[in-house]
Design a protein that fits this description.
The longest helix is centred in the middle third of the chain and has 24 residues, at 157-180. It is built from ten helices and seven strands. Helices cover 46% and strands 12% of the residues. The relative contact order is 0.14. It has helices spanning 17-28, 40-52, 67-81, 106-116, 118-134, 146-149, 157-180, 224-233, 243-255, 266-280; strands spanning 8-12, 32-37, 57-61, 86-89, 138-143, 184-189, 260-261. The protein has 294 residues and is α/β, with parallel strands linked by helices.
């Protein structure tokens, strides 16, 4: 798909981080952008920032975990701009789960799946049939993560499970679009290759009451700055990838009709090979050992 001025891009989780960077990059290509996010104040700020740069913007508060909310977003986008050419199912949360997997609060799983998995499916179901029916070239980008999408980080197992699901969902979407002969493509995005400064670490600020923890958290939430400081004290400097780089990977990947939006990374390549080798050899997943919980 060739991005052209006048096309329309819808981005969820667009008020900050990767979502905002993608929206800004699409706007730089002359696309009209629809920003969707659950955090109204941040969404208004992001929309004003884009409009200030000359972009054509429509913003809507959306809870992607609610099917009706996403369907209303689609209705609104089509009523406003008449078409959608790019859909980025990008909204995501960390779960805030603690301890061993069997100790996790069930609502940590329910909330993470509602946003990270159901949110992607809701976007596909609300937009893709209309994108196909429109007949114009289009593209769907679903945001996964190296944590789960490539190999799970056991200390964040709930998040990893949801992001693994996004990969399989996108593979299935790709196959269905091909079988349909649609002019719509699909990609799965692995932001990176290093850590990113996003609001994922503070996801709990937007946690709905319906997914409240059933029991109090044993330890306080830790911010990205606090985690980075702890790593520095341990003698480890953390590398960060600018969100603008991720947005560039997305734009370039859409243009090339690339399914795997996976930035070059020796670390990721090692994980992919180690996991594949473990499966082919029917061997234990030794690639997880360095992440075993203490």
């Amino acid at each position: 798909m060739e991005l052209e001025a006048g096309q329309v891009a819808v981005v969820t989780g667009a008020a900050s981080g990767i979502g905002l960077a993608m929206a800004e990059r699409f706007a730089a290509e002359g696309l009209k952008v629809v920003l969707a996010d659950v955090e109204e104040a941040a969404l208004d700020k992001a929309a004003a920032r884009l409009r200030g740069s000359g972009a054509t913007v429509h913003a809507r508060v959306v809870d992607v975990g609610e099917r009706d909310s996403v369907r209303e977003l689609a209705d609104d986008a089509y009523a406003t701009f008449g078409a959608v050419h790019v859909l980025c199912n990008n909204a995501g949360v960390g779960s805030g789960a603690e301890g061993r997997m069997w100790e996790h609060d069930p609502n940590d799983w329910k909330w993470a799946f509602a946003v990270n998995v159901w949110g992607v499916f809701h976007g596909i179901q609300a937009f893709v049939p209309r994108m196909i029916e429109g007949g114009a070239p289009g593209h769907v980008v679903n945001t996964s993560s190296g944590d789960g999408g490539i190999a799970p980080l056991p200390t964040a197992s709930v998040y990893a499970v949801t992001k693994a699901a996004v990969v399989t969902m996108t593979e299935s979407l790709y196959a269905h679009l091909k079988a349909e002969g649609a002019a719509v493509g699909a990609s799965v995005l692995f932001p990176g290759p290093h850590m990113l400064r996003t609001g994922l670490w503070e996801s709990h600020r937007n946690r709905p009451d319906r997914y409240a923890k059933e029991r109090p958290r044993r330890t306080p939430y830790r911010s990205l700055d606090q985690w980075e400081a702890a790593m520095r004290e341990a003698g480890r400097e953390v590398e960060f990838t600018p969100v603008e780089y991720v947005a560039e990977v997305v734009v370039e990947g859409i243009g090339a009709d690339r399914f795997w939006l996976l930035p070059p990374s020796e670390h990721s390549d090692r994980q992919i090979r180690a996991r594949a080798r473990s499966m082919l050899d029917r061997a234990e997943p030794s690639y997880l050992e360095r992440f075993v919980l203490d």
